[in-house]
Specification:
Number of domains: 1
Shape: globular
Keywords: Signal
Bound molecules: zinc ion
Length: 254
Amino acid sequence: MVLSWMLLCSLLPQPAPPFWVLPFAMTPATLSAHVADGAPRVLYQREDWLPRLDELRRTFGRNKEIPPRYELETLLALSHFPALKDTRIRFVTRSRAPISSRPFVWTLLRGRKSLRVYRIGIDESDRFGNSPALLKNMSFNARVGALGHEIAHTDYYETKRWYQFIAIGASFVSRKFHKKFERDTDQRTIEAGLGHQLWLWAREIRGGRVTDNPNSWLDRYYYAPSVIAEQMARLAAYQRLPTPQEALEDEAVR
Ligand SMILES: [Zn+2]
């Protein structure tokens, strides 16, 4: 499966041009841009949040090891998972897949969950060429979405006891389970308020495609952008915000 993913990612085209400046998006949820409260935001603007880096570190950076180059994106993604405030997570720039999430297995046996350590891997090598699936090739908000998806895995793992990981690991032989596992993770990322960022990530790794294609390996395992938008439309938290597609179209006519 990892091999398929690696192969696929190496074949994907370059990310589409970003559309980051959306002044119309000053809805109530975005006006409070300097409060990291986990509310959905159409876009995170790096320059708005850099001055608050120390505050983000104090609030969401406890027990986290984060590569400096992705610190802001990671802390913003973590701000959507307040239950993980004290959880030990190491973000490391080594991974067999472009981005991955798992516990350090031996720490599962420590008894208390507070002693567990999770690992989120970010591949920085040249193995995947210029694949848009690599964090280093993504736009800022797509990175927040990608990291949010991986942190949503951690959030799920935190609810499991050590022996349940054996069942989870064994279940990966089933495509049906793997599909549900990834799609449930996308759903949790949306429910955590990262719908717009997840949509951007999903669009970028598909080379700009937003439709759901039943012949796409990616779309079988993960929500296509159109599916993410459908799920967002069902949630009250997104009702007062432009949809990701509206935001994209608005930017296109500027
Ligand atoms: Zn995943």
